[in-house]
Every structure is written in structure tokens, then in C-alpha cells.
Write a sequence for this structure.
């Protein structure tokens, strides 16, 4: 598709969106009137308008990449400002997800001048920064839907910035200086891939964070992206106020052992940049686990396990690998919303104390 075609497509979508939203607002106004036989038709038309809005919002979301590509070379057209305002109004009355309405999202590509960027291997895709529309807190939560990397098959990354060996075992053995840049994650007992589940929970978490005024940096917002673990960590370091990576443990157990966070082991607490961050990692992890417990999630042991992870070894911001369960966990909608509420409690208490 040519740039001009993309542009035309984008404007067409915006015009359709504004039209559908305006129609919807008008019709919502009608709904408050005295009941009359016409109301039947109005309700029908209203739900149709809502469907159209949703469909258009979806279209906007799917053309996000194209939109972002355009905004790099030209300034944002004025109409998108109106679009944001109308969208915010509709949000209050129609209970649509924040992300569908968040026209304020931005593609964040890795900047090769950033610290540790020379340790990354694949960064052709961007992370997506969503800005909250209401009650803005000016805090960016980095949310990583664990796994789901493509394009880094067979590639390796260093475990530590000083290239020293890992001090504990995990998915990479103790003593190794390099780890796989791409890991598929485990498979749930029902056949669901870990990456699918982490994305599902991450998206729900994103929407809930945006609702409460947090901005969200989605380090993976697609099924599979060309952004390896190291690239995600480097982008989070430079763009977010914390980094929460969502996982489920592949421990081979036949029962759900509960949630926990992975803490930095003692052996690397003097290594840069870990010596500056491990206490904050611990506080964020402990508060997330405490929140999960308060929302009714089973907690494993004392809620933590010490493992030498590449993510926390390169993090210059509070950073946590959060294991919400394992392959035996049955993640239904009820459980997923408990995860989200629990993580919200954790984030709120962490930033309240900052
Ligand atoms: Zn995992």
C-alpha cells in the first residue's frame, strides 16, 4: 500500500469514527426521553451505532501500525484531537474498554543509543505506549506479556551486563554466560500456550491501569513480535517507571502451586545496575504478591523465589518477573480479573510509597 493510500484510509476511518460516535452520542441523548413506541427503533439503532463504533475502533486499532508509520513522517492531523475528546465523552456513558478508545497510543522503537542496546538481538517491532485519557497520574507501567518473541530463533544474549555467569539455575543453567534470546514458554495442561495467556492477562491489566489513570507501555501487544527479552528490558528502562513481566511457571506439577515473584539472588546484588534496583524490585514484587493474595489468589510459599534472571540483571527501574500460577492453573475470566485486581492493588501501594 502506498503512503497516500494509507493516508486516505486513515482519514476515511477517522471520518467514519467521528460520524459513528456523534450518532451514538445523539442517540444516547434520546434514550433519556419519555418512552414512546419509537423507542424500540431508537434502541435498535442505538445498539447498531454502538456496534459500528466498536467496529470502527477495532479498525483503528488494526491500522495502528500504519498510523504510527505515518505520524513519524508528518504531524498529527487536527481531527485526531477532536476524536480523542469525543471518545472520552462516550467512554463515560458507554463502558467501552479504554484501549479501544485510546487514540493516544504511540509506537516506541528501541533507540540504539540507549544503555545496553548493544546487548539486544531483535528489535524490529515497537512496544506500544498507551496514554490514559482521564485522571492522569503521569506514571508509566511497563507491562510485558511474557514470551511471544519471533525472529530470534537460535540467538543468544548475555545473562549479565558484565558478562559474568549466571549464579543460579532456571531456564538457563547456573554458570552459563549466555541464554536464549527467545523462549516459547510453557504449555498449559489444556494446550494453551503460556504466551497466549500472558497476553490475555496483560491486555486486561492494561485496560484496568488506563482506567485508573496510569499510562501503560505494552512491551508486547501482539501474538508474536520481533522484540527479544533484552530489547523489552532496554525499552522499559528508558520509557517506563516500572517493569512487570507476566508469566506462568512451567514446573511440571499436577496442581496449581500459586503465585510468586522472582527475586534477585544475593550473589549479584553488588553487580551494576542490580545494586541500585534490587531493593525496589523486591518491594514491587512483594506488593504485587500481597495484592494478589488480597484479591483471593493462592500464593506460593512466602510469595518469592530467588532466581538469576536476565530481565532483572539489566533493569535500571523497579522490575519484576511475576509468576501468576503454573500449567495446572485454570485461568477463567473470574480468575483473570482477580489477577488484574491484585496487580492493581500492588501497583497502587508501590507508587503510593514512592
Ligand atoms: Zn514464562
Amino acid at each position: 500500500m502506498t503512503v497516500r493510500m494509507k493516508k486516505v484510509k486513515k482519514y476515511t476511518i477517522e471520518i467514519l469514527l467521528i460520524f459513528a460516535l456523534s450518532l451514538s452520542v445523539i442517540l444516547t441523548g434520546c434514550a433519556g426521553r419519555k418512552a414512546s413506541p419509537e423507542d424500540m427503533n431508537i434502541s435498535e439503532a442505538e445498539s447498531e451505532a454502538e456496534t459500528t463504533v466498536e467496529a470502527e475502533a477495532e479498525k483503528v486499532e488494526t491500522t495502528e501500525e500504519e498510523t504510527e508509520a505515518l505520524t513519524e513522517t508528518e504531524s498529527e492531523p487536527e481531527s485526531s484531537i477532536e476524536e480523542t475528546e469525543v471518545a472520552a465523552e462516550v467512554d463515560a456513558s458507554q463502558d467501552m474498554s479504554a484501549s479501544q478508545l485510546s487514540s493516544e497510543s504511540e509506537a516506541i522503537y528501541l533507540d540504539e543509543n540507549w544503555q545496553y542496546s548493544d546487548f539486544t538481538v531483535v528489535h524490529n517491532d515497537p512496544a506500544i505506549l498507551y496514554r490514559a485519557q482521564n485522571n492522569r497520574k503521569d506514571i508509566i507501567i511497563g507491562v510485558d506479556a511474557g514470551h511471544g518473541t519471533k525472529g530470534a530463533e537460535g540467538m543468544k544474549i548475555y545473562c549479565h551486563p558484565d558478562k559474568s555467569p549466571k549464579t543460579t539455575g532456571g531456564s538457563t543453567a547456573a554458570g552459563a554466560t549466555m541464554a536464549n534470546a527467545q523462549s516459547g514458554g510453557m504449555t498449559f495442561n489444556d494446550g494453551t500456550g503460556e504466551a497466549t495467556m500472558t497476553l490475555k492477562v496483560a491486555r486486561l491489566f492494561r485496560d484496568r491501569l488506563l482506567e485508573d489513570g496510569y499510562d501503560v507501555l505494552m512491551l508486547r501487544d501482539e501474538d508474536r513480535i520481533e522484540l527479544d527479552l533484552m530489547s523489552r528490558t532496554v525499552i522499559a528502562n528508558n520509557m517506563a517507571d516500572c517493569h512487570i513481566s507476566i508469566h506462568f511457571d512451567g514446573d511440571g506439577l499436577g496442581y496449581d502451586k500459586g503465585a510468586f515473584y522472582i527475586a534477585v539472588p544475593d550473589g549479584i546484588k553488588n553487580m551494576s545496575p542490580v545494586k541500585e534496583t534490587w531493593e525496589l524490585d523486591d518491594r514491587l514484587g512483594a506488593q504485587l504478591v500481597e495484592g494478589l493474595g488480597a484479591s483471593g489468589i493462592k500464593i506460593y510459599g512466602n510469595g518469592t523465589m530467588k532466581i538469576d534472571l536476565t530481565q532483572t540483571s539489566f533493569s535500571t527501574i523497579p522490575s519484576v518477573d511475576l509468576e501468576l500460577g503454573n500449567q495446572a492453573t485454570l485461568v477463567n475470566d473470574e480468575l483473570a480479573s482477580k489477577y488484574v485486581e491484585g496487580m492493581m492493588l500492588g501497583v497502587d501501594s508501590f507508587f503510593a510509597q514512592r
